Amino acid sequence: MNDCIFCKIIAGDMPSYKIYEDQFTYAFLDISNDANGHILVVPKQHATNVLDCDKTVLVHIMDTIQKISKHLVENCDFDGVNILNASGKSAEQSVFHLHFHILPRRADDNLHVFPELAKNEASLQEICEKLRIK
Question: Which of 4, 34, 36, 116 has its CB surrounded by the most CB atoms within 10 Å?
Fold first, then answer.
């Protein structure tokens, strides 16, 4: 994709702070510099989001996410990670090239990355019946 910023980063047409790269994936620091070590993991093959990504590529992405996450905890003095993804405009996806955020975490970092959601009053049984894959 000619206008995709992540495709330009992967191609080397835009600079990045590369953390990891293999045949299928590219991982780099998020330039927002909002959380210490905030990493984006993207497939080299353009996919808009999880919904249209090739299954084999998605497996490689998850392998890279696990590899980086283990490295952060085992070698970089972090206690854990948050792994985040938004797929689709209504899910607040802002760059339409599939990407996962890895946020390295420490027990005392005071980050709160999960939204506080209002209680849903719908019946869990009704929701289950509607959403169950048959």
Answer: 4
Whole-model pTM? 0.93
Measured distance CA(76)–CA(17) in Å, rounded: 17
Lowest mean pLDDT among 35-44, 84-93, 115-124: 115-124
Q: What amino acid occupies position 98? A: L
CATH number, domain with residue 99: 3.30.428.10
What total number of domains does the chain contain?
1
**Catalytic annotation on 101?**
no
Pick the closest to residue 48 from 101, 1, 102 (CA basis): 1
- Range of the structural domain that residue 93 is part of: 5-131
Q: Which of 46, 97, 99, 101 is catalytic?
A: 99
For residue 97, count other CB atoms closer than 10 A to its CB.
Answer: 21
Q: Residue 100: its pLDDT value, please?
A: 98
